[in-house]
Amino acid sequence: MHTRHREPQLLGNEATLERMARILAARNIDPADAALPDDAEPFSPLDALLAGMPPRYQTAVADHPTVLEWVRRVTDAAVAPSRGARRQVTTGPSLLMAGVVGAGKTHQAYGAVRALVQSGVGARWRATTAADLYADLRPRPGVDSERELAAVSRCPLLIIDDLGAAKASEWVEEITYRLINRRYNYELPTLITTNLAIKDLRSYLGDRVASRLAQMTTRVEFEAVDRRRHSAAA
User: Fold this and answer.
1) What CA–CA distances, in Å, run from 31 to 24, 25, 52, 210?
2) What is the pLDDT of residue 25?
3) Residue 26 pLDDT
4) How far apart are CA 25 and CA 51, in angstroms?
5) Is 168 left (phi over 0), alpha (psi -120 to 50) or beta?
6) Which burial class, exposed, middle or buried, applies to 137 when counting CB atoms under 10 A from its CB (0-12, 13-18, 19+)?
């Protein structure tokens, strides 16, 4: 996956309004002329979720037992901000998925987010590749990289795809540590995928990051089969 990271996605009414606004703007329709009748069928939370997902993963289904167990635990930990409100993801466990390119890790990650919504839980969420994250956080004129790091760090639910794909450096290690450490301290659920073998994470990420990941994540190694090539051959 090579998409740029996104602003936190909103599930529920706010996401519905944003999605409608984008659709109307694309069709050059004035929102004032597009009022829905009172009995119009509203967008579902799943519709709102799909509006913020890359098209390739909009039909993703999580079926790995460890991933489904993660969904269950995050769902159980969700709380309602007020009586009668939809339960929201606030804290919960994290998951580290390791395996070769094409093994289905990203598919499972997006499928897990879909499963959360289908279970009736809402969340502000965000997805990024590690390489895109580092590119956006590099100090440069006109960009408040510290503010951006803070925003990513505190997002209630985060997907970090392809951790370990970027070139290792002291700066990359430091940024990764600051991000992971904050999410570790606040117990914010994080879905991490990596092409590295779990045994190789420490040498790439450093002791501090590897130690935090070992404590905050459940780890699962996917079979060494590139499912993209397998599907193409079929």
Assistant:
1) 7, 8, 20, 49
2) 58
3) 57
4) 15
5) beta
6) buried
CA end-to-end distance (rounded Å), the chain: 22
Dihedral-angle region of residue 2 (phi above 0 means left; psi in -120 to 50 means alpha; beta otherwise)? alpha
Whether 2 shows a pLDDT value over 70: the answer reads no
Q: What is the pLDDT of residues 134-173, one digit of tens each?
A: 999 998 898 899 999 999 999 999 999 999 888 889 999 9
Strand 217-221 versus strand 157-161 pairing type: unpaired
| Amino acid at position 219, single letter | R
pTM higher than the cut 0.85? no
What does the H/E/C string look like for 76-103? HHCECCCCCCCCECCCCCEEEEECCCCC
